[in-house]
Amino acid sequence: MTATEARTVVVVGGVAGGMSAAARLRRLDEHAQIVVFERGPEVSYANCGLPYYVGGVIAERESLLLQTPASLRSRFGLDVRVRHDVVRIDTAQKLVEVEELDSGRRFTQSYDSLILATGARPRRDEPVSDIPVRSLRTVDDADAIDAALVRPGLPVVVVGGGYTGLEAVENLVARGASVTLVQRGSQLLSPLDAEMAAPIAAEVRAHGVDVRLGVEVVRADSGYVTLSDGTSIAAELMIDASGVVPETTLAERAGIRIGETGGIDVDAQCRTSAPDVFAVGDGVEKAELVGGGTALVTMAGLANRHGRMVADLLAGRSETARPALGTGIVRVFGVAAGKTGWSERQLRAAGREFYAVHVHPGSHAGYYPGAETLSMKLLADPRSDAILGVQVVGRDGVDKRIDVIATAMHAGMPAAELAQLELAYAPQFGSAKDAVNILGYVAENTRTGTTPTIQWHELDAAQRAGAALIDVRTPTEFAAGAIPGAVNVPLDELRDRLDELPDGEIVVHCQVGLRGHIATRILRQHGVDARNLDGGYRTWRDAALLRG
Amino acid sequence: MTATEARTVVVVGGVAGGMSAAARLRRLDEHAQIVVFERGPEVSYANCGLPYYVGGVIAERESLLLQTPASLRSRFGLDVRVRHDVVRIDTAQKLVEVEELDSGRRFTQSYDSLILATGARPRRDEPVSDIPVRSLRTVDDADAIDAALVRPGLPVVVVGGGYTGLEAVENLVARGASVTLVQRGSQLLSPLDAEMAAPIAAEVRAHGVDVRLGVEVVRADSGYVTLSDGTSIAAELMIDASGVVPETTLAERAGIRIGETGGIDVDAQCRTSAPDVFAVGDGVEKAELVGGGTALVTMAGLANRHGRMVADLLAGRSETARPALGTGIVRVFGVAAGKTGWSERQLRAAGREFYAVHVHPGSHAGYYPGAETLSMKLLADPRSDAILGVQVVGRDGVDKRIDVIATAMHAGMPAAELAQLELAYAPQFGSAKDAVNILGYVAENTRTGTTPTIQWHELDAAQRAGAALIDVRTPTEFAAGAIPGAVNVPLDELRDRLDELPDGEIVVHCQVGLRGHIATRILRQHGVDARNLDGGYRTWRDAALLRG
C-alpha cells in the first residue's frame, strides 16, 4: 500500500481538490515528498462560506481558514507554498517552473506525479469601468466587499442570478446595501426550469431587491451601470457572479488536451493526456450521468472526491470516478432551491424523450405545526422510467428530498420506485407517505397513463383547441384566484354533476394535483376524455409569475 | 383496469392501511362497492399526532381527524361505518358478521374480497390497579390523558421508553406533569444500540424526567406504583407505551394462518391463507430485508403502502411488497434518533458477521453557524459490504441521513459507495464531504484494514492485555476529560515522539475518530501495531453514560 521509495508528488492549487489529494496521499504514504503550490495567499479556505462572511453570518474571518501551511506541515508533513505560481509544466522532463510571487524568483521542481487543481476563474465579461468589480472566489474578494459595505445603503449591482449571485444578494441585503440583480437570462437560477425558479425571483423581490431579467450590463462608469434595455442603475460596486470558466492556461501551454467543454480532458481516473499528470476540480470536465457525455460541474464535493481518488491511485489502489449528477442547492432568504440531474430545458435541447411530474406535498405531516409546501418536479424516461432530473423548491426539507433522489439516481432506481422507499417518519420530519413517495406515486400514475396529464405550458393550446377546463377545488379556493376560462365543479360534487360537463376533451385541475387526479380517474371511468393539469393551480400560478 | 361488474370489497379497520386500500381502489375502480368497518368512533385519524395533541403542540383536535365517514362518502363513494365491530369471518361463505356497537344489532355482509387492517393492540402487561392506565393509540386515549393533565404537576408514570413512550414523555413534561419513565430494558429506545441510545436518556433526564432503567412495574394502587427493584413512585396516571401486539383475534378465529412472530402470515402481495382475504398493516408480519425472514414492523408508511398495493392487485395490477427495512425516527426534546435496518444487538443475536463504524460529523459545514455534531453508527457485512443497519442521533439533520441511507439500502448499495454520493451542498445544509460520505469513507478504511479499529466495548480487554492507549487530542482536550490509562501525545507531535511510544500493541484515539485515523496511519507506516478507537472519545463517553 505504501511506496517503498520516496517519490515526489506536486500539487498545483491548494483548495478543495488539491488539498484533498495531498492529505489523503499522506495518510496512505508517510514517505512521499508532497509539495503544494498555491498562487493565492491562503490554502484550504471555505470559499462556499465567503458570501456569509460578507453578510456577517460568519462572524470570524478565521473560521473561513480551515488550514494553514503551518498546520498542514505539522499534521500531514506537507510542503505547502502559498503565493507560488506555477508558470510552466515540462511534461517531458517532469518538472514545473514556479514563480515565488513576493520575490519574483523562479525555480523548478521535479515531480514523479503532478496533480493539477487549478480551479476556475470568473468569466468576467463586464465592460471596463471605474466601478470596482469583485467576484466572490477568494478571501481577498470577501475582504474587499466587506470593506466597501461599511457605507450604509451602498448601491451594488450583482451580475448573475445563479447559486453564488443569489447568496451574494441575500448577504448584501443583510448588510444594508441597495441591491440590483442583473441576469442575462429570462429567469434566475438557470439550472432549474423557469416555472420552478419563478418563486425565487418573487422571494428576492419581496426582500427589496431590484431584479432585472433578460438584460446585460453594457456600460459602467461614473457611478452608473447601463443595461442592454437602456435603463441605468446607480452602482458603486459590482459583484461578478456571472459564472466561471475552467482555469486551463497552464495545462494548455503544456500541450495537455482540453475537452470540448473547455475543461481539462481526463479519464475516469482523472488522468490527463500527459503521462503522470492528473487533474481534478473545477478546471476539469467531468463525465456526467444523465447525458453520458462530459460537462463542467463545478462543485466542491466532486473536487474533494476526485482529489482523494487520485491519492488512492497513487497509493496503488484502483478506483474510478462515478459520473456526476450535478447536484446543487442554494438558499436565498427563506427559500431553498435544489436540483440533481438534468432540467427539462437540458433534455429538450438534447432531444431526449422525457415525462414531467410536478407535485406540491408538505415538508412534514400537515397536522403538525410548521409544515411547508414543497414544489417538486421530476423528469424521467418514459420507456425505462430512469430518473433524469429532479428540482425541489421550498422553505423546509428541500435538501433532504434532493439527497434522497440523488441517491436513488446514483443507484439507477426507476422513478416509480421512489414510492417504495421506507423513509423516516415522525410528524416533525415527514409524512407516512413522504413527499418523495408521493413523487413516485404520481410518476407511476403519469407514466402508466392511469391519470394522463397536461403540462402548464400546454394548457393555452389545449383550451384554444376546445378543451374545457374544470376547476375541482372548493368555491372558496376558486373565488380566491382561478385560471382564466376555468369552470368550478368541486370534486365532492363531481359524480352528481357529470351531465353538466361539456362534450369533448376536459382538463381538470385542483390546487396541487391530487384532487385533480381523483377527478380525472372518476371522469375517465365515466368515459370522459379527461386529463389532469400537472402540479395544479400552484404550478400554473408559479409559471404565471414569469409573465408578470 | 376497472372491473366490468361491481364487486364488493370489505375492509376491516379504517385507519392507515385500510383507508389507503379503500381510497386507492376507488380511484382505480369507480364501480366497486367498498365497505369499511371500523370498531372505533373515528376513521383515518392521525395517530402519530396523538402525543402532540396531548402536549398542546397540535392545538386543534380537528386537525387529527383527517377524514370523516361523510367526507369519504362524498369524495370516494365509500361506505364507511364507524363503531361497527367485525366479530366473525366466514371464509367459506365469503361473508363477515358485524356488530353495530351502539345498538348491539348484528348483521352479515358478503364480500368478493376482504382486506383485514385490524392493526395492533397495546401489550398491556401492567398489573390490575386503581390507577388509570391509558395507551396512546386512539383519539379517545388522547382526550382522556388531556383531561387528566388539567391538574398541574400530575404524577404520571410512562411505561416503555420506545418511540411512543419518549414522545409521550416530552409532551407530558410540556403540560407540566411530573413524569417517571419506567423501562424494562437496560436502555431507552431498544431499536438502537446501547451506546447510541445513551445520550437520549441523558437528554430526557436533563428535562427533569425520572428515568428508571432495568425495572418493571410490579404493583400499582392507591396512588403509588411499585417497581421490581422495590422502589415506589407516586402515580395518578399510567401511560402504557410498552409496545403492541398484532390484533389477530378475528383472523385466528377464522382459521387464517398466523406467522411465527404472532402477526398474520401473508405473501409478498399481502394475501392471507384464506382465499380472497388480504391483510395489511400492524396486524401482519412483514418480510424484512436484512434478515431475509419476517418481522413485526409497525410503521404507518408500510401500512399505507401495502394497503395501496392490495388495491392495485384488486384492480388487476401486479405489484409486490418490498422487504421492510424498519426505518424509524423519534425526536425527544432537542434530540432526534433514527435507525434503519438492524442494530448490532440484532446482528449478534442472529450470529451474523458484521463490522461496525461510529462517526461524529457535523450536520453542516462547521464554518457556518448552527452546525451540530451527529453520532452515526453503521453496520455492514465484512464480505459483501452490504449495509445492514444505520443509527443516527443528534440535534439536526438526523432524518436526512437516515433517509439517504435507507434509500441506499433499498437499492442494495454497498457501504463504501456512500462516499460516492453526490449530495446537495451549501453551508446551511451539509458539507462538501457530507456526513454520509464520511461514513462511507470510514467504512471503507475500516473494512479494507487501512485503519484497523477497536470498538468501545473491546477497549477494557485490550488494555488488560497490555495495549497502550494514546490520546492524540490536544492537551486542552485531554485535560477536560480523558479515558483512564490514556497517555496524551498530540497528533501534530506524533511523528517527532515515536520513540516515546511503548512496544507492543497501541490503541490511539481522538475526539471523534478522524485524528485517530491519521495517527493510526502514521504509526502503522512506522511499523507500530496500532488500532484506532472507533468513534473516539465521544463514543466511549456516550457508552460510559451507560454505567453512570
UniProtKB/TrEMBL annotation, chains A, B:
Residues 463-545 form the Rhodanese domain. Keywords: FAD, Flavoprotein, Oxidoreductase, Redox-active center. Gene3D superfamilies: FAD/NAD(P)-binding domain, Rhodanese-like domain. The keyword Oxidoreductase applies. SMART domains: RHOD. It comes from the Bacteria. Its cofactor is FAD. This is FAD-dependent oxidoreductase. InterPro entries: FAD-bd_OxRdtase, FAD/NAD-bd_sf, FAD/NAD-binding_dom, FAD/NAD-linked_Rdtase_dimer_sf, Pyr_nucl-diS_OxRdtase_dimer, Rhodanese-like_dom, Rhodanese-like_dom_sf. Pfam families: Pyr_redox_2, Pyr_redox_dim, Rhodanese. Belongs to the class-III pyridine nucleotide-disulfide oxidoreductase family.
